[in-house]
Fold this protein.
Amino acid sequence: MSFSIWFEHLSTIKNDEIKKQITKAISAHGMWKVRLKDAINKQSSEFEVNHVRTPHHCELGKWLNSEKASLLKFPDYSKVFDLHAKVHEEPARIMQLALAGKKDEASHALGLGSSFANLSAHLTQAMMHWKQAL
């Protein structure tokens, strides 16, 4: 196998792995709406606000940070990285409201048209764009 064919094959494998990670991340981040609704209803959560706020605690954040050197070459990486960090601020704020018993305010912050909904949608769109570009 020539070097160029081998390199192309290696690149395809890497792209397939990135696609899998993106798919997992979209699913995992989608679960946060469920977790937040649960926290609002119960006024408790297994997650601490500061843990939720920190982007490198979740699987996507761990992957984005651990593979940064190899992922920087992708134009969509920086956008996803930045949006991901911003997205973590909103669930932390909502979690804080939920744990403080501010159910109506927390529910509103989670609803359609909220910062959480908009940032989540932008992050998902950016990840899908990245996946399609591979």
